[in-house]
Amino acid sequence: MADRRGRCASMDGRIERASSVSDRDSWLPPSGPAVGSLPSSWAQPEPENIGQPGGPGFVPPPPSGWTPPPKPGLLPLRPLGFGTLLGAPFQAIRRNPAPTFGSGLLVQLAVGLITVAVLVPYFIWLTERMARAAAADIDTIALGGIGTMLLLMLVPLAISVAGTALLQGIMVVEVASATLGERLRLGALWKRGVKRLGRLIGWVLLASLAVLIPALIVVAITIAISLISPVAIVIAVLVAGLLALGLVVLFAWLGTKLSLTPSAIVLEDLTIRAAMKRSWQLTNGHFWRIFGVLILVNAIVNIAAQLVSAPFQLIGPIVMSVMDPTGTGSGLAVYIGIMVVGLALTMVVSAVGTVALSALVAIIYIDQRMRTEGLDIELQRYLEVPVEQRAGLPDPYRRA
Question: What sequence ranges are listed for the domain DUF7847 (predicted)?
Answer without folding.
Answer: 92-357
